[in-house]
């Protein structure tokens, strides 16, 4: 493979610096990842105290809660991006006239 391949990973960029760069581009993705991890960990912790609830039902509820958190974070990220790209520039253009 040639070294000018645009699809190859950047060797100078480490995992942490790449995560920081990506979180600057879309700030709600790390929030979604953290929420998914938190809800999943809490669900696994509560697995011990599920009483008479079946394990499959408990795991389904945990998965739905974690996915719901991620969907909310992605939705907020899209709304923030739309605001930043479309609404905020229009409000600055109107005030300059």
Automatic annotation (TrEMBL):
<dbReference type="GO" id="GO:0031966">
    <property type="term" value="C:mitochondrial membrane"/>
</dbReference>
<keyword id="KW-0812">Transmembrane</keyword>
<dbReference type="GO" id="GO:0097250">
    <property type="term" value="P:mitochondrial respirasome assembly"/>
</dbReference>
<dbReference type="Pfam" id="PF04588">
    <property type="entry name" value="HIG_1_N"/>
</dbReference>
<protein>
    <submittedName>
        <fullName>HIG1 hypoxia inducible domain family member 1C</fullName>
    </submittedName>
</protein>
<feature type="domain" description="HIG1">
    <location>
        <begin position="1"/>
        <end position="92"/>
    </location>
</feature>
<keyword id="KW-1133">Transmembrane helix</keyword>
<dbReference type="InterPro" id="IPR007667">
    <property type="entry name" value="Hypoxia_induced_domain"/>
</dbReference>
<keyword id="KW-0472">Membrane</keyword>
<dbReference type="InterPro" id="IPR050355">
    <property type="entry name" value="RCF1"/>
</dbReference>
<feature type="transmembrane region" description="Helical">
    <location>
        <begin position="27"/>
        <end position="45"/>
    </location>
</feature>
<dbReference type="GO" id="GO:0001666">
    <property type="term" value="P:response to hypoxia"/>
</dbReference>
């Amino acid at each position: 493979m040639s070294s000018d391949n645009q699809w190859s990973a950047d060797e100078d960029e480490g995992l942490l610096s790449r995560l920081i760069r990506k979180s600057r581009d879309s700030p709600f993705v790390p929030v979604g990842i953290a929420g998914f991890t938190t809800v999943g960990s809490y669900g696994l912790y509560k697995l011990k105290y599920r009483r008479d609830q079946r394990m499959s039902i408990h795991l389904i509820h945990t998965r739905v809660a974690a996915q719901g958190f991620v969907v909310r974070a992605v939705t907020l990220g899209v709304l923030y991006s739309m605001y930043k790209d479309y609404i905020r520039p229009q409000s600055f253009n109107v005030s300059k006239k």
